[in-house]
Amino acid sequence: MAEWTEQELRASVDAYLLMLTDELAGRAYSKTEVRKQLLAGALRNRSSGSIEYRMQNISSVLRGMKRPWIEGYKPARNVGEATAARIRRHIVELDQRAATDPTNALEGAVPLPERQMKPGNTPPQSPSEPALTLPPGGDRGEEGQRIFQLQAEVERDPKLRKEARRLNVQKYGQITCEACLFGHSDPAMFDVHHPTPLAIGVRTTHAEHLLVLCPTCHRRAHRKSKLDPFTLLELRDWVAAGRP
Q1: Contact status, residue 13 vs residue 87, Cβ threshold 8 Å
Q2: Domain HNH nuclease: where (predicted)?
Q3: Domains and CATH numbers, the chain
Q4: Structure pTM?
Q5: Disulfide-capable partner of 73 in 28, 55, 62, 116 (CB 3.0 to 4.6 Å)?
C-alpha cells in the first residue's frame, strides 16, 4: 500500500480531533459514521482497517504529547518516528488554525453542520450580537465585548468533587483545606484538586485520590508545573514556612 499522503493524514487528524472535542465535551458522536464519511471522501483509497490503525497512531502521538486521546482508539505501539512527526505537525497546525480562525478549524473531514445536528448533539446557537474572532497576534477586543474562542475542555465529574468534599467533612468535622487546615462551613469556598493532573489524559479517578484545598493553596499547587504540581507534603511545608 502506498505511503499516506499529507492530505490523507490531515483528513485523519482533522476527523480525530473533531471526535475528541465531542468526547471531551460529553457530546454523542459515531466513529462508524465518521469512518464512512472518510471512506467516501478524502480516504477513498484506504481500507476501514487502515483508518482504524491510523486513528490509533494519532492516539499514540497525543499520549506522547501529554494530551487527552479518544478512549475507543487504544494508542498503537511502535509508531515510526517519521510518521509520528508528520501527525504531530498536523495536530499543531490544526491547533493554530483553531486559535486564529475558529469558524474554519477542524471541519475539513466531517462537515460541521452535519456533525452538530446528529442525534445527541446540540445545534449551534446564534449569538444575540456579532462575535469577535481573535486575531493572530493575540490582541483582544475591548473590555465587555463579546468574543468567540474555540477550546477543548477536560471533562470533570461533579459527583467525584461532591464525594471528595463529603469525605473531607467526615475527616475534619467541617470542610477544611488539607494543606493549611483553614476550615469553614461554606464548601463553595474550597476547591477540589487533582494531584495527578487531568492534562495527562483519560484515567480512572476515585474521590480518595482528590484533595480539598483553599483557593490560595490550590493556586500554589499549580505554580510548579502543569504536569507536576506541588504535593500535599510540599504545600504543608510551604505553609509552615509562612507561605514565602
Answers
A1: yes
A2: 163-219
A3: 6-121 (no CATH), 158-240 (1.10.30)
A4: 0.45
A5: 55
